[in-house]
Amino acid sequence: MDAEAVPVAVLLRRGLRLEYATLSWNVVGCVVLIAAAFAARSVALAGFGADSVIEIVASLVVIWQLKDARGDGRERVALRVIAVAFALLATYIAVQAAVILANGSHSGRSTSGIVWLALTVVMMLALAAGKRSAGVQLGNAVLQTEARMTLIDALLAATILMGIGLNAVLGWWWSDPVSALVIVYYGAHESRHAWREAG
Fold first, then answer.
1. Nearest Cα to 22, choosing from 118, 125, 98?
2. Burial of 77 (0-12, 13-18, 19+ CB in 10 A)
3. What pLDDT is attached to residue 103?
4. Global pTM?
5. Which residue from 81, 133, 149, 152 lies 20 to 30 Å from 89 (Cα-Cα)?
6. How far are the Cα atoms of 83, 96, 187 from residue 103, in angstroms, in the given order?
7. How far apart are the C-alpha atoms of 28 and 24, rounded to whole Å?
8. At 6, phi and psi to the nearest 5?
């Protein structure tokens, strides 16, 4: 459908529906991942659970911005909140992964974590595509930034899935905290990007 043929109100509703879906998925994911991380003593699952909390914050900020997109400064505030949240995530995971690697703590296996991560890869890819399309048609930088975050969330889920999968199948305990370090890079990168977008 031609972008000009889609009313702004329709695109805004579409963006909001996508954000509500992301929000709901991540709320459930927080519970599943934190429980799985605690049971398996997995820093990677804990890190992805923390990432889900950041995604919840990001979705709430985008919803707040989309509900009043009149150029009243909400876009800049939204991007800066997202930037700070990702900086905090990167710092937390870096410290946790370093402690685990230094102590040589071995994490256990987590079937529920593996299943949830696999489902998350599929769900986040679908949501990211929808958000990007709506964001581009609206010319909304916040929604486009959040679409990129959702895409990277899918890639993170795949990376963490590989890490805990190697631990479960081959007993490579270090693959769990090492895969968590990917979140550190991602968090730092997205924090810088969102802050620059805020201007």
1. 125
2. middle
3. 72
4. 0.75
5. 133
6. 31, 11, 24
7. 6
8. -95, 115
Other Cβ atoms less than 10 A from the Cβ of 127: the count is 22
Tokens at 172, concatenated: 């490579």
Nearest CA among 103, 118, 104 for reference residue 164: 118
Is 90 exceeded by the pLDDT of residue 12? no
Give the position of tokens 């930037």. 83
* Pick from 80, 130, 100: nearest CA to 40: 100
DSSP assignment of 84-135: HHHHHHHHHHHHHHHHHHHHTPPP---HHHHHHHHHHHHHHHHHHHHHHHHH
pLDDT in tens, 73-120: 677 777 788 788 778 878 877 877 777 777 766 667 788 889 999 999
CA distance 61 to 132: 16
CA angle, residues 194, 161, 98, in degrees to nearest 5: 65
How many CA within 13 A on the CB side of residue 139?
8
* Cα separation, 158 vs 95, whole angstroms: 22
Provide the residue type at 43 as one letter: V
CA proximity to 96, closest of 162, 52, 49, 32: 49
Query: In terms of Cα–Cα distance, which of 128, 140, 149 is closest to 54?
Result: 149
Q: Does residue 3 register a pLDDT over 50?
A: no
pLDDT in tens, 53-63: 878 888 888 88
